[in-house]
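Lecture 7 notes: from sequence to structure.
We start with the chain below.
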Amino acid sequence: MPAHTLDRTPSLTPLLARGALLSPLKRSALNRPRADADLPGTRLVLPGVRVDLARLAAYERVCGFPVGDDSLPITYPHVLGFPLAMLLMTDRAFPLPLLGLVHTSVEITRHRLLTTNGAYELSAYVEELAPHRRGTEASVRTEARKGGELVWESRSTYLARHRRELPAGTATGAPGPAGSAEERDALPLVASWRLGGDVGRRYASASGDRNPIHVHPLTARLFGFRRAIAHGMWTAARCLAAHGTPQSALVRAEFRAPVLLPGTVEYGADGWGNFELRGAGGRVHVRGEVRGAPLGVG
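Predicted structure tokens for the same chain:
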């Protein structure tokens, strides 16, 4: 896959605007999302990325990580690489509309601890499209390297909902952690968290992801939500801050249902690395797992 090297971090606000403008065209009958559509065939590369310590501290506070550690939270490279992913997903060659695109899962592998004072090369590319029972799902890969060594990587899936007929035997999206989230018994309760209405705005300020469904109830209602909803990556980060992760770790999280703000959620975990976030009536919002990953991979 050819690489395109950027000389600066893309600005998210113009990308959100461009994605919104292109979304109606991509949703048209002529450009209806489909699994055999062309993908952006370029891997974006951004060298020499350094961490803004003030933004990192704001991120750590809103997500519940200790402030001032010498190493980055396991989810923070996603924040650093998200502008590259957005540049890909707002490209005309990306077939799915940005508006209404739902982050359905994330898988993160940390091969080494990433220090706060390091310089990293970030890269991102669209890996594939796959048919899903509710539409089409795209997979986006993000990688972080230090001195040429792969130290962190992730795979995020994003779903564009639309009507489709699947052939018999077609998979219905990437599998999440083992078992049905609704059928399994709740994990042992660890903590109950009362979430303020400003969680989405605080995370947006720290991460740069100012999607309107997260920042204000009025803009969230335009997209069918009664109130603003928490970012999926905030829910995963908040769970992982409470759970903890080994230095070399594999993390999977499946985003099952939105978390309305303000609200109360219950965090559960067991002794085997599984965690979840549940809401009223036991509804599962997030289910995930933390496993050790072998050192030296990549």
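Points to note: Confidence is low (pLDDT under 50) at residues 170-181. The longest strand covers residues 120-132.
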